[in-house]
Amino acid sequence: MITPFNLLVVFGITFYARGDSDIITIINLIWEVDNKNRSIIHIAVLHRHASIFNLIHELGSIKEIIVAFVDDEDKNNLLHLAAKLAPTDQLNLVSGAALQMQLELLWFEEVKKIMLPSFVDMKNSEGITPRELFTIEHKELLSKAESWMKDTANSCMVVSTLITTGVFSAAFSIPGGNNDNEGGTPNYLQKPAFLLFAISDAMALISSSTSILMFLSILISRYAEDDFFKSLPMKLMIGLVALFISIISMMVAFSSAFFITYYHGLKWVPNFIGVLAFVPVPLFFVLQYPLWTDIIYSTYHCRSLFRPNKYMLN
Q: Which region is the signal sequence (predicted)?
């Protein structure tokens, strides 16, 4: 019978087994079922153990038999189990309800790929299909994901708007003033620092505007379940990267403008201020680093969990 102990045994054997007898042991455990007719693969899906679930790809024709097992009690197939809400410890692998929702959708889609077409829309004893069960089980998580995504987008959009306003004004407040005798040409037009100011100010304006558009598209999204699979996390990532670029560009524009304006006085002052101006850049990176890593983990790394680099039964 399948017990939590069996699950741990298979988990250990998967990584440390090398001999033919160990492989035979794994195969035998895969055929074992609990009192609800659920195999080790079913238990792995229910508890979100990707390493054990990946064994299904190495079973050949046996796979079609294993995935056809149906729960004797509720008539749930493997996809029904993937539609159930994951245990709390697995959900907490990533922070933020939106990213947790993305991880749940990823599990559902990966299990769906190996199911026979007739099992995808199969109804359980309550007349519920796997997709309908997923919607029911994740209703509360979906609501939390929508609130989390809106709050994050709103906060970031405020910062992007402030940057856009500032760099737009700076574009028409030329550092060093204009030469009225030459048709209003900037006095320091030929200096490298002025060119640096012009380019960085333009980049700050473009990148901050891009981040505003990304966060705005998040706010006006329909927030359907499938939107959390790729669309919304990707928009959030692009918006955060654009915001980070805009902050760097804004600091470069400020430093170069300060250098142009005050370099003729105490030369060490603009140099010192220019260096000091970049303090917010690493600070922003450090503060947002956990969010970035969670987005990258749930969007890219979690997908690699279902594509192991080597076969475990060889």
A: 1-19
